[in-house]
Protein 1
Amino acid sequence: MNKPKSRESKPVTHKTKKPAKQTRPGWDIYFINIAKAVSTRATCLRRRYGAVITKDNVIVSTGYNGAPSGMIDCLEAGKCTRKELQIPHGERYELCHSVHAEANAIIRASADELKGSTIYISGCDGEGEECVSEPCMMCKRMILNAGIFKVVYSDGNGCYHIINPSDWLRNRV
Ligand SMILES: [Zn+2]
Ligand SMILES: [Zn+2]
């Protein structure tokens, strides 16, 4: 299993394709692919993200982005305001009604489960193309306070990054 290096400033890139000789996927590939499957449940037209939280390689929680329970989501409304206005990635989240995948996964896990856990995030755009799934600044703050120890997210190119959330502290996310 790949361990994040706490003193590393840049995320490390790993290939999601398994080596030719390996007969079964490693844990990180296994769970990032499950996160990808979870993302298909998302209700936003612009981006669909899935998150999986694991502890000791056991899934404790999953989440995908969507409107809060009982609120009309982008799919039902037939439009996404951030998509319509072509808001750049990471900006104007107040225009979006979604609770993010990471947040939904975190609120469904207990504090004990979250401490020292790993979160896997994968997503795709409206056309189904895999996209960079680095958490937004609000989710980064939540991940830090949840005590999550390792973050694995797809890089949008069939690879994934592994990062220790403490690396975010330097730039004050
Ligand atoms: Zn939307
Ligand atoms: Zn977020």
Protein 2
Amino acid sequence: MRMMKRIFALLLTVAMLVCALAACNKPKEPEQTTPDTTTPENTTPEPEIPTTPPKKITSFRVTCGNSAVENFAATELKWYLKEKNLPLTDDGYHISLVLDESVTEDGYTIVADENSLVIAGGNNRGLAYGLYDFLEKYIGVHFYAPDTVVVDKGDVMIGGGVLEVFEPAFEILRNPWQPIEKLAEKDGGNTAQTGSTKVISLNTIAGTGYTTTCLSDAKIFEQALQKVRAQLSTGKVDAIRFSPVTDVDLYCTCEKCAAVHAEEGAPSGNYIRFLNKLYAAILPDYPDLKFEITPRAYMAKAPTVTKPADGILIRFDTDKCHISHPVTDTTCPEAVAFAESIQSWGTFCDNVYVEYALTAYKDFLPVFANLGSMREDIRFFAECGVDSIQFTGNIVCPTGEFGELRVYLLSRLLQDPLMSEEEYYGYMDAFLKAFYGEGWKFIRQFIDKTIELAADGHQTKKDSPFAAITEEEYLANEATFDGLWNKAEAFAGDRAEFVKRARYQWRYIKLCLHPNEKDAKALIADAAGGQRVAWRDKQWNVDTARSNLNLAPTEWVYKS
Ligand SMILES: [Zn+2]
Ligand SMILES: [Zn+2]
């Protein structure tokens, strides 16, 4: 894995540098002072690239390097230029698309003079990001969702200078942004995820039950090694995920273990030493194997001396994390503990990743009130050195709530985790306008109100939605919400279907508040018509024969 902390510091530096050199298209806020000013990145003089003011471009010429991916990118670019009615001519403004090893992996640069521009990607994926970001920022092609790509009518204005330097803050394994999501991996799309992960509890392999397994005991180590080998011999395994020895603060305090604990400043040190040793013993036979650990209980705080071996990943799942307020909410004890744990590991070692939920665990339709917390969460992860974020939940299917908006915003946050609140809501509004038509402002009001109501709630992705916004709060706002959705539908024009589909979330909540068969049947019929949406994981239908529709939808029976 790459040195994310260095990259992150560099990102801030580069953003300021670019702003100084040229009219920065999307300035990042340098909210913190850049830590040290003597790193080589800061002292290396940048080549002088003269800046020139933006001028209107009316025709283009596109060239590229020889590789398949460069040719693919050039074909894509030409296609979108045609969509915008911009002619390709031999003497047009020259855009060249190239792979350039001097550019950061997964990153890109865009450098221009008066008559030409070069989009250089550090690798296939970097070139793809460079291409689609260029289309969005400079040509006005906006990729909101598979069925919603908007090409602005306005002029194309491009100036000279270093226009963009993108260095990803996270290692991006899967960016759910539409143009990237639809690409093949060879063309710069997401990495195909085919690995299989085996979950083993150290309890089982260390074999002493729900008590204080001694990780300093050589016999226990041998026993664990044999059991892991036995697991690996059963078939192809790409990763082993170790759950902690216990899920509570029970760990061995024998003389040897206590000495390690004292040296490492945390009981997790003993565990890391144990796993490093286990990993080293297995690696010669399984060189591609990864270990994963989930820091819970006495693992919450990172050690201070022994770092996990390179192939050992620290995985934070957000199962127990509250989605309805940011992880930075200092009034919530669970959030404080979680944030401290991420900070402790993120600043101590590499290979820290977070699994972040896009979808409620159980019922997919009701309001999933995390639109107000996502920006601060992702920013926090970037700031404390998390290396990668992996999304769980629905990325590609139409949803009955704001799934498409959530995916779009998260894809923007992955690329720009330090964006300001203003930028975040700017992206949100642009999406809402394109996706929900003229009545979008009423939907924005619904979102704002639900964010406000959810902020003092503590809903995890597994909890009832009423853990975020109470039934009483919904009842008090019922007439307002009905009115907002009515208006949004009335003004939606040719996006009415999209608004109606997003309204399922509110109809679902209302059915929980006032269960009744008539409205239940209407919602079931609507959800099954047009763009179908899932009610639960892989469950696209309500089993009406086995459901009492006079009860709340949480009580119904679902089927595939
Ligand atoms: Zn011990
Ligand atoms: Zn909370």
